[in-house]
Amino acid sequence: MKTFFPRLIHASLVFALPLCVPGVLNASDSVSRSGDVLWAASDLHQATGIASASSDTIQALRKESAKGNAAAKVRLADALMQSADANDADTLNEVCALYREAAAKGEHGAHLGLAKALLLGNTQTKDLKERRQEVMDQLCKASARGSAEADRLLSQLVLITGNRAKDSANAWALLNRAGQRGDATACVELADAYLSGSWNGAKVPVDETEADRLLGVASSQRSPEGALKLSMRVSRKWKDAVPEDYEESVHQLYNALLWSYESGTPLYDEAQKLCDEGKLYPRTWFRARYLYEKTIHPEVVAESAELTKNVEVKVREGVHQQQMIAGASNGPMLTALSFPYDAPYLWDGVVTMTDDGRLAVSTDDLYWPSVAKQLKSGAMPCFVKILDGPYGGLVSYVPADWVPGDDREISLEAAYPQMFTGTTKVALGQWRSLFSMFGQYNHAGLRPGTSTDDADQIILLDSVAQKIERYFFNSELMAWASVDAPNEAIADLALPPWQAMFILRREEAPLYLTVDGVVSGAPASMPIDPGVNLITNMEGRFTDDFGSDASTSTTIRADAFPVFRFDAAEEREELVSVGRENGWWKLLGISAGTPIFMNIPSAFIQSEGEQNVPILLQR
Hints:
There is one protein chain. The chain is 38% helix and 19% strand. Helix 4 runs parallel beside helix 6 (109-120).
């Protein structure tokens, strides 16, 4: 993303922002006014996006909360917030107490909830200055744990309370960070700014490409406004638009109408007006309106199912998988985290092998042009995976500098003609990255810190360099840093789609990481590099070696973690456990008795010299 102002470090939030606030908010009506603005802009009642909880639900949450369940405390506080208002001091005091207790246990969502509750009313009889400072502190903590909404609220607070160019620059930087983290409201506001060239009276660079990307992010968050504006952008070429663009414009406009209807703020009349004014492609409006009117009523469900087939855009996001990162208990907890899904595909279709070893895509494929839109120079490396036939599951590398061109061909680092005989269905995907997995600004919510001693860690096993790599989110830099250089922000890291890793968690509350991808039913064939490898999903191996009880276990000691060496000396491939004597945990800086949370099917570590025979890995 092109940002108008330089990066904003955490220190400027903790120190500079509170210092600039007192000079502006020196009267109680100013504080009340700023709270009212944030209330209207941020829908503070919708803390979790859930409907008002029933009395039975609240009672059940109270019981769980009394047991010390941090997640239940946050859910109870969220539920109570649904009915709270600025004059309900007793409820707001209870809400704040619940959020504080949950935050103390590491439930990162509690910081944002507490800030909202403090903005809502004069709770805990705090004076204005003290309450304002706590709001800022809690929003900063929520931001360091990856909250996009916290960044947007901070941006609004700075605009409301500031009166200098510096404050406007800080607000813009915070809004950009909220957009980078995926906040739908921020994305729409940023897109408008990049299209118009101004934001709150300040000039910003016009960037239509970035505006379109931001609207796409907002639409993916079910934002009616984002989907409507994206439909207008996609269909702006009207008759010159390619078929895929027309389908997408209808799809986005239909979603905008549907989501706005579901939220109780329909955009139907606004869309009709945009069409009448020539700002919306009439063909897009007529088709989306027809589908909307046919699908909004339950009695035409069968008809609507058939109708929506005609506007279905090829979706490559796949499915969601949620994996738990265990909370700490009497010391740090190590989670062996595996990702059995391929990264979301850029494209899938039929190819033929050319004489020079390239994969050629048919000129009839309507979806190939979208690859050029998605894949830019300098992006993550790509891979090609065969989806059918006897070699289904084979992963081939694509040169790192390859970008799609007008020739409709995909380069491969090594070609295997026998595997691409005739026509073969393949998928083109990109490697994952540190930012895409955990968020450029810690969207996953790992515990941040100023050093590795107090922060959660992401631990990678680099088999090529034969070393352990550790990363954490530095709360002063507001950026990822390496243990080797803790005070230097790092650039994004490329992670193969089959990468697995360890997460070291220091707080009691667990985290849940959601991964988008495509389920791959076929085994994948790939070489094992010399050194140390963390390989995922050898299904059955864990149970076979450690007995039937192991499949129901959630933790295992580090010195009992299954470690295997690949022995290809004979024709028959064999995995031999090397177990306790390996001492691999010493490389990670943990003790033999450290509990490891296992995601079943388990991962395992493989250590060996030169490997020439690939191993089949089941995803």
